[in-house]
Amino acid sequence: MSSGKHVVVIPFPFSSHAWALVNLVLKLAPAAPDVRFSFLNIAKSNSLIFPPPLRAKLPSNVRVYEVSDGLPDGHCRPMEHTGEHVELFLKAAPENFRAAVDEAEQDVRKKVSCFLTDTLVIFAGEMAEKMQVPWVALWVPAPYCLAAHVYIDIISELHCESSGGGTSTDNDNDDDKSLRVIPGLSMMRISDLPKELIDDQDTSRSACMLREVGRVLPCGATAVVMNSYAEVTPTPLIADLKSKFKMLLQVGCLTVSFPPLPLPSSSTSDTTGCLTWLNARYPQSVAYICFGTVAMPSPSEVSAIGEALESTNTPFLWSIKERTMAFLPVGLQERTSAYGKFVPWAPQAQVLSHPACGVYVTHCGYNSMFESVVGGVPMVCKPFWADNMMNGRMIEEVWGIGVKVKGGTITKSGMEKALEVVLRGEDGKEMRKKAGELRERLVKAAGPNGIAEADFKVLVKLIST
Predict the structure, then answer these.
(1) What is the extent of the structural domain holding 229?
(2) Which molecular function term from Gene Ontology is one that the record holds (predicted)?
């Protein structure tokens, strides 16, 4: 199908964004063997997603390039998802990536025929327009979050009219806070939106970028690819988004496997010891706690989680950063050693698919949410930012497969109640049943007759011809 095209790939190198685009490229490469893919990314991100052993095994038509991260010379701190680092990256990115594109063209000896980027890399749209080539943008978060970006002007008006000013609250029943005027978002509230999206006073580069995404994509992107399944997305929402973009493709969850990957057959594959430890627990009895790679609860919330786990004698597996361990109640590790395990990292997808896993205490990241669905595991939700709040509302109120932390802050009593409800109550049994039903729908959606497979073939044709 292909005729020797050259696709430049640019991820947004923070949080978990890059993983989805990497997985998409690794899926596209064998489907379009004549297309050359030049993956342009900063060194710190590349080192995480393409360690040397993996880089040596990449398809022959995929080549990785490293681009300056924008940090000044002598800046020794690691590149992390902090406001300072994101700002420095965004400031330097357009110039640095233009130079990297020139290098890739000379190396491959082919002019760029298409840009495939994260939607947050909006400067790629300008580059594609100048070069008169297509711009294909991957939307990694939830579809309803994309709709919020597209309708940013209407949302800004609602925010100004709202007496609550868009501040986070559980009392979201006021009509002026509802987003029901936006197709497919009737269940959402202004308080569910990222504050950077609705705060016009925030003039940082990252906030301005977020507010521009929904205005740039409809006119600039040849196609918008969504990291989701049409079969589990509200029909009015998808119909409206399709009317806004030149082409809208839903190619499935790029970081999650439906059905789940099998558990390792031996403990030799379990380098962390998590799965071996889970093998000794009763079915559906363990609380798995993890807030992703970036989000971090407050010291009081960390302490409250520990106190609740101990007071309820709940078996738990807690993926926790070393610096966060200092906030645990004194002596907690020793007192809970018989039924609790602390690890710096866990094979999350396999943990959530393990029969012993009974509940997932999560920040409601989009990928994490679907990993929980793969395992049929209900959730206790503590949203932090970005699309977390919207995901939390979907989990609790639309899908009915979890509960949000009451009041938005984790307390000992609140966590005790949530664990009781989800792990040991009748409501928890119903949540687990619904999670299993949703998993089956997604397994079918991911199959050969699902919309995702058809849309993927359209994407292959687009970048190839």
Answers:
(1) 6-257+445-464
(2) UDP-glucosyltransferase activity
